[in-house]
Amino acid sequence: MKFSHKWKLTLYLGACLAVMGAGGAHGASPVASTGQQNEILWDTFGVPHIYASTEAGSFYGFGWAQTHSHGNILLRLYGTARGRAAEYWGEKEEESDRWVLGNGVYKRASEFYHHQPASFRKDLDAFAQGINDYAASHPADIADDVKAVLPVSGIDVVAHGLRLMNYVYIAEERKMLGDPPARKAGGSNAWAIGSSRTTDGHAVLLANPHLPWSTPFFTYYEAQMNGPGFSIYGATQVGLPILRFAFTKDVAFTNTVNTILGAVRFRLTPDGDGYRLDGRKKAYATKTLSYKVKLADGTLATRSFVQRYAKQGPVFDEADGTPVALYVAGLDRPGMLKQYWDMARAHDFGEFQAAIRKLQVPMFNIVYADHDGHVMYLDNGILPKHKNGDFNYWNNLVPGDRSDNIPDGIVPYDSMPKVIDPPAGFVQNANDPPWVSTYPRVLDPKAYPAYVAQTGPMSFRAQMSTRMLAGDEKMSFDDIVARKLNTHSLLAERILPELLAAAGKDRRAEVKAAVKILKNWDMADDATSRGALLFETWARLFMGPKFADFNGFGRQWSLDDPISTPSGLGDRAHAVDLLAQAATETRKLYGAMDRPFGEVSRFHLNDVDLPGNGGFGNTGIFRTITWGPMKNGERTPLHGETWVSLVSFSAPMQAKGLLSYGNSSQPGSPHHSDQLSYLSSKTLRDLWLSRDDVEKHVESVDKLP
C-alpha cells in the first residue's frame, strides 16, 4: 500500500471510528478525547502534537512522529552515523564510512550514551523505540533499502547527533582536508527584541535558520512535545530527539551558525614511519579498522585500512600526501542533547543560563528571549584555548611539530562574547562575528583573544538585520512580522543611486535600457519586481559569484561604522561597463532585462509551482533564498528560508511560523509542498499551541502505548 493511499485510508477510518465510538492504533477519531494521555494529534499541516503522561513517553512519540514523516531520511542518517553506509548502500559510501570509523564516531557515541543521566538515557531509548515501533507497525511506509538499519538504539540516536555536530558542522571532511579551508558560515537570521522595544511590553523572538533544502542531515522538522510540566513547540533537524529551535510559555531560543573554530588541523612533519614533535621522532599509534561493502551483485566484501593517530588526533592524508592530524574540541563533553533539553525546560533566565553555561553544544550562536522581557546573544561553542595566534592562524593548517600548539582546555562560558539586555533593547545575528550583535555595539574585539572571531567585515544581510531593529521605535508584533518578510536589497539602496548617476550619460543602448529599468525598480526581490534580475546579475559581476568581494567599493567596511559601510563605487567607469555586460547576460539568461522576478524564480515542489520571492543574502536581503542555476526555464531554491517562527510572550502567546518545504519527505505525503503557497504570498501560518486550538485542526490521531 502506497503512503498516499494510507493517508486517505487514515482519514476514512478516522471518520468511521468516530461514528462507531471506537479507537485504534492508527486513524482514530479526528477529534480526540482530552482525557487521552499518550497520543499524537496530527494537524492539517502534518505537524505532530505529542501528548504523553511521562517525559519518556513524549520522546517515544517524537521518535514515532519523525519516522512517520521522514522515516527514510532518518534511517539513512542513522546507518551513516554507524559507519555502515557502504554495507547498506554500496561502494559510493566508503569514503563516508572511513571518515566516521577513523574518527571513532560510533565508539565515542556509545561512551557518550553511557555517560547520560539514567533518566535521559531512558528518554533516548524511548525515542529509538518509537522509531522501531512505527517501522514495525507500518512496514509499507519504510523504503526497502533502509530497512536493514532497523532496529535502532539510544546509541544510534547519540551517534547521529555526534556526527552532525562534530563531524558535519565542526569537522566535515571536505572542510578539514581542503586548503584553503572552506569554513564559511551557513545562513540564518535571529532576533530577540526586549520588552522595552515592543508596543505591548512583551519580548519577541525570531527563529529563522537557512540551510540547503535537499541535504538530508539539514532537513528541519516541526513538532510540539507535551508532557508532565512541559509544552515545547519548535523545530529540529531530522534524527535529533530534542527541539533545537524551541519556545514555551516561559522561554524561547534559536541558533545561527557561527564561525567558531572548534577543530584544528595540524600539518605533521614526516620522519620515516613517524612524525616530528618537539624536535624528536614520534611513532604513530595505529589501529586496523574494517567495514563491509555491498557490491553490485548484492554480496558483501570486507575491507580494512590502518588508521594512524598522532598526539593531536587521528591522521589523514591530504590530496598531495601531506599528513594532517585532526583535533576536535568537545569529544570529552557528552551532554549536547541533554543541554538542549534543559534549555527547553528552563522557566526563566537563571535556569536557562545554568543550562548553557555547561558548554556542551559544540557551536552555534544562541539567541534568547523570555516572558520576563530578557534578551540575550551568546557566541556559543566549545572553543579550544590557545596560547597565541589569531583566527586566520588557527583556521589554516597549523604546524604540528610543536606540542605547545596543542590546545590546553577550552574557553569558559564567562569568557565567551555575549550581550544581555543591551540599552538598544535587542540582539540579532545573521552569521556574522559577534561584535555587532546589538547596535550601538557593546562588544569590543580587543577584549577577547584574537582567535575567538574575525573582526569583520559584516555582511549586507547582517547590516540589514541590524538596521531594521536599530533606533528607539517601539514595534508591534505585526511590525516585526513585516520586517521579517522584507525583501528589500540593502546593496541596491547603498549603491544603485551612484551607479545610475554614473551610467546616466553613457550612450550605449544596453546601458540606457538598463538605467531605465533600474530607475523604475522598487529595490526588492518580489515576484512582480522588474529589474531585480538585472541588478542581481550586475551585483554578481561587481562582487563575485557569492556577492562577497568588497574590493569594488570606494569606502571599505569599518567596525566604527559597521552598518553604513562599504559604500560608493571605487571605479565608476568600470561599474558602468559591468552594467553593460549585465544587460547582455540578463537578456541571455532570462529572455529579457525586465523579466518579472517570479516568472523565472519559482517555488516548485512536486505539483506545486508558484512565483518566488526573496534573494541572495549577501545582496542585503533579509528574506534569504539562494537560487540555483536556470534549468528548464526556471530556477528553484537551493538554500534559504526553511523554518521560521516568530513568537511574542503576550497573553495569550502570539506565534506564527512556516516550514517552507513542508513537514514530511515520505513518498506520497500531502505535507511536502503544502506550505509553499505561504512562502509565495509572503505570509506566515498561525501556530496552534493550545490543546483546544489543535483539536480544531486535527487531520488524524495516533494512539500510543
UniProtKB/TrEMBL annotation:
Coiled coil: none annotated. Keywords: Hydrolase, Signal, Zymogen. It holds the Pfam family Penicil_amidase. Residues 1-27 form the signal peptide. InterPro entries: Ntn_hydrolases_N, Pen/GL7ACA/AHL_acylase, Penicillin_amidase_A-knob, Penicillin_amidase_dom1, Penicillin_amidase_N_B-knob, S45. The lineage of its organism: Bacteria, Pseudomonadati, Pseudomonadota, Alphaproteobacteria, Acetobacterales. Gene3D superfamilies: 1.10.1400.10, 2.30.120.10, Glutamine Phosphoribosylpyrophosphate, subunit 1, domain 1 (3.60.20.10), Penicillin Amidohydrolase, domain 1 (1.10.439.10). Belongs to the peptidase S45 family. This is Acylase.
